[in-house]
Amino acid sequence: MRKKALITGITGQDGAYLSRLLIDKGYQVHGIVRRVALEDPEHRLWRLKPILNKIKLHAGSLESYASLFNIVQKVKPDECYHLAAQSFVSYSFEDEFSTINTNINGTHFILSALKERAPKCKIYFAASSEMFGHVREIPQTENTPFHPRSPYGISKVAGFELTRNYREAYNLFACNGILFNHESPMRGYEFVTRKITLGVARIKAGLDKELRLGNLEAKRDWGFAGDFIEAMWLMLQEKKPDDYVVATGETHTVRRFVELAFDYAGLDWKKYVKQDKVLFRPAEVNQLIGDYSKAKRILGWKPKVKFEELVKMMMDEDLRRVKCQKQF
Ligand code: G4F
After folding, report:
1. Annotated catalytic residue: which of 79, 130, 183, 230?
2. Which of 113, 106, 107 is nearest to 74 (CA)?
3. 113 and 204 housed in the same domain
4. DSSP type of residue 299
5. CB atoms closer than 10 angstroms to residue 247
6. Across residues 196-203, what is the average pLDDT?
7. Ligand 1 midpoint to CA 191 (Å)
8. CB-based contacts of 104, cutoff 8 Å, min separation 6
9. 221 C-alpha to ligand 1 centroid (Å)
């Protein structure tokens, strides 16, 4: 019988890559989406467009225990990937209550529903390097203490602990993937990498004259989303559930990303980038760099796409898109 996977957050970047991977592996893929997404597929399901006829979508909400419970009961998944969240760190400062409520309750609800209706299901929780925040050591490992710096980071620490507690208290096969930043041509436009590559492509096409950014000195460990989702799947194929850092082991400033992207388009970034105080965060995570040696040792996982290739991949896609559809 085909294995059944249930993905929350299937409409996002990671959900789109993961769905493709699972379809290729022969899984029956189910996703939970908000009802509005089903009513407006053109805008909200664009990342899933090429595979819509190969997956089954269910209307539900992270805010409703009943909806998650009913979907879990109906699907009875073998594996569940809980990716859904309010995932934009900056926005979490503006609306801390909804970020904290949705992210923490959503994780609690899905864990509880799985415990009640599919206790054998293997569970992946999308934890985050944002949990390390004001970092206590460099590089960060599975043993580095957390010091989150945003409501989003706090909500992920709570999700991490809930997942670990369901594993220890109820014997669920529940894993935390502590993923560092991961990007791709399917990244949302609010995140800095995509904002930069689209911004450069628009400037190149003469559609914009400047690119406004916040803190250029922040350092991130940026990998390719297509590589990182493989680690999610590998965690659930292990004999025992555990927590893993997924990263590249390299760190770069936002400024470096900017330089490479503008260089690629043959432009001098200093002429176009304006720093805007409004885009700085009330509390910043200054430096992230992950040590993925546990994932390498146990899962046999390592990142394939290097930083420079990632910038080129995203630039190529945005230059192409802006060229064919000037509305971007
Ligand atoms: O691209 P970002 O918004 O990503 P951030 O905050 O690191 O979070 C991402 O990665 C996490 C994993 O560590 C995920 F959990 C999370 O969901 C998300 O995917 O910002 C990256 C850096 C920050 O230091 C920010 O201050 O870029 C800096 N930055 C500078 N100017 C900007 C901007 N970020 C954004 N979004 N927009 C700017 O104009």
Report:
1. 130
2. 113
3. no
4. I
5. 29
6. 98
7. 6
8. 155, 158, 159, 162
9. 11
What is the pLDDT, as a whole number, of residue 325? 79
Angle, vertex CA 96, rays to CA 166 and CA 175, nearest 5:
20
pLDDT confidence bin for 326, thresholds 50/70/90: low
- The answer on 229 and 119 residing in a single domain is yes
Q: Percent of the chain, pLDDT > 70? A: 99
Q: Express each pLDDT in 75-126 by its tens digit.
A: 999 999 999 999 999 999 999 999 999 999 999 999 999 999 999 999 999 9
Tens of pLDDT, residue by residue over 288-312, are 999 999 999 999 999 999 999 999 9
141-186 pLDDT, tens digit per residue, is: 999 999 999 999 999 999 999 999 999 999 999 999 999 999 999 9
195 lines ligand 1 (CB under 6 A): yes
CATH number for position 50:
3.40.50.720
Sheet of strand 122-128: strand arrangement: 55-59, 28-33, 4-8, 79-82, 122-128, 173-179, 243-246
- Residues 247-270: what's their mean pLDDT? 98
Residue 277: give the domain boundaries. Answer: 189-220+251-287+306-326
Same domain, 134 and 196: no
Does residue 198 have its Cβ closer than 6 Å to ligand 1?
Answer: no
Same domain, 214 and 230: no
Asked about 94 being catalytic, the answer comes back as no
CA 32 – CA 77 distance, rounded (Å): 12
130 counts as catalytic: yes
